[in-house]
Amino acid sequence: MRTAHQGAAHQGAAHQGAARRGRDRRARILPARPGASRVQGSPPSVAVVGAGIAGLAAATALAERGVAVTVYEKRPYLGGRVGGWPTELRDGTTVTMSRGFHAFFRQYYNLRGLLRRTDPGLERLTGLPDYPLLHAGGLRDSFRHVPRTPPLSALGFAALSPSFRLADLRAMAPRAALPLLDVRVPEVYDQLDGTSAHAFLDVVGFPADARHLAFEVFSRSFFADPRQLSAAEMALMFHIYFLGSAEGLLFDVPRAPFPAALWDPLAGYLARHHAQVRTGTAVEHITPTPDGRLVVASERDERPYDGVVLALDSSGLRSLVQHSGHLGDVPWRERIGQLRTAPPFLVSRVWLDRPVAPDRPGFLGTSGFGTLDNISVLERYEDEAARWSARTGGSVVELHAYAVPAGVARDVDHKRLLGQLHRVYPETTKATVVDARHEWREDCPLFPVGGYGDRPTVRTPHPRLFVAGDLVRTGLPVALMERAATSGFLAANALLEQWGVRGQTLWTVPDRGRSALLRALATRGRTLTGGQRPH
Length: 535
Prior knowledge:
Blueprint: H1 4-14, E1 28-30, E2 45-49, H2 53-64, E3 68-73, E4 84-88, E5 94-98, E6 104-105, H3 109-115, E7 125-127, E8 133-135, E9 140-141, H4 152-160, H5 166-171, H6 174-177, H7 187-192, H8 197-204, H9 208-221, H10 231-243, E10 251-254, H11 258-272, E11 276-279, E12 283-288, E13 294-298, E14 302-305, E15 307-310, H12 314-322, H13 330-337, E16 345-352, E17 363-369, E18 372-377, H14 383-392, E19 395-401, H15 410-424, E20 433-441, E21 465-467, H16 480-498, E22 506-508, H17 516-529
Parallel strand pairs: 2-3, 2-15, 3-11, 8-17, 15-21
Antiparallel strand pairs: 1-22, 4-5, 6-10, 7-10, 8-9, 12-13, 13-14, 16-19, 16-20, 17-18, 18-19
Helix pairs in contact: 1-14, 2-16, 3-16, 8-10
C-alpha cells in the first residue's frame, strides 16, 4: 500500500515540469523605459513599507539596481498574506502555519518572475493535476480536460460541464454577455463597475448551477459576496483565465511551506544586494520634508529617505495615512480613507489521526456546503505535511470559508466547517482531530460596485511616494497576487525612472480579447446597446 508521503512524492514527480511551462505566445510585453543598468554615484535610499508580495517585488527591483533599500514589516515574517510562521503541535512537532492555500496560476508572469530570482526553473513549485469543483447537489466540474486556447477554453468548459444544460443555454441573453468577449482595461470598468457580479449574471441569465461552480469561484477569490463585488472585476478574471490567455486554469503550488519555498530564499537574495529587512518593525508615520525627501518614523527610530513605497493592505494604508497628516493632498487622503476591506474569512487547518481516502485531490473547490469554500489535503503536495503524515499515518487538511456572514460565532463556525468536511469526505467522520489551528482574518481589499475610481493608483501627489498592492488600480489586466507583484514592480520602475535607471520589464495577458470574431461581436453589442451598462 502506498503511503501518503509516497503518494505526494509520486504526484510531485509526475507534474514536476508543469510549473516551468512557458509564457503564452500572445502575452503582452511592457518594456522598461531606457536607462542605465544601475544607479550612478551615491545610491538613493528607498523605504518599502510592507513585506508582502508587492513590497518584496519593489524591494527586489530597486536593490538589484543599486538602490539602498530598507524594508519595514510589522510582522515577524515575510510574505504578507502569503506568509507563514512556526507553531508547535500537541505531539511536540513544530510545523508552519499560514493563512491558507494559494494557487500560483501560470498567468502570474510577474510574480513568477520574482520567484525565479532564487528558483530559475521554478523547481520549488509543483503543478496540481486538476482544479476540481463540487456542488452539494452532486454536480462536479473539472478544468483538467478543458482546452487551454481561447475561445475553445470557454466553449470547452461549457461543453464538458454538467452544469450547462441545453435548456439553460437557450434561456441565456447572449447580447448581455457580449462584454465578456472583449475585456479591456480600464474600459471594462466604464462598462461594468456600476453593476454587481451577481446582478450581471442575472441579466445574462447564467445557469444557477454553472454560476456556483464557475463564476462564483472568481468572486470568492476576492473573499467577497458576488452581491458586493464589482462585475468589472469578475469580467477581468474571466478574461485572464478563459478568453484572454492560453495558460488555462490549472495552477502550481509550493512544494514546501511558504517561508521555505518562497520568502527565506528571497530574503537571502535581498541581503546579497545589500537591502535591509526590518521585520517586527511597524511604521508609525511618514513626514515629507521641504527638500523632497520623506522621513519614516518607526517604533525604533526615524530615518529620511529619497523615496517610499507603501505596500500595505487597505486597513494598514488607511491607518498610516491617517497618522501622517502631511502626506499627499486632501482628495488623495479622502480616497485612501474610503478604502474598504472584504468580509472576514476563516482558515481552519486540522491534523487528523488517519488519512483521507487516497483519491482525494490536493485541492477541491466546493459550493453549497454552508460556509465551506474549499478543501486542501496538504500532504498531497507539501513536504512538511507529507513528513507528518508519513510518521503518524494521519492527514493534514485545510478548510476555507470566505466572506463569512457578520455575527457568526467563531467556535460554532469551526464546528460547522468540520461538519461540512465530513459531508464532502465521509471517511473523516471517524477521524480524531489531533490538533487544529483557526485563523480569522479581515484584511483583504473589497472591490465594491462603483469603487474603481476611488482606488489608489501607483503614483501619488508626492513625486517620491508610491503605492503598491492588490488594492491598487494599475490599468493592466492583472488581479490578486499578480496585481500585487506587478504594482510593486511598477512602483520601483517609477522611482528608477527619476534616477535615469532602466526598470523591470513586465508581462501581462493580452489587454483585449484574443479572437477578432469575438471582438467584432462585442463591438457590435456595444453599438446596439449604445454602451449602456447592465442593471
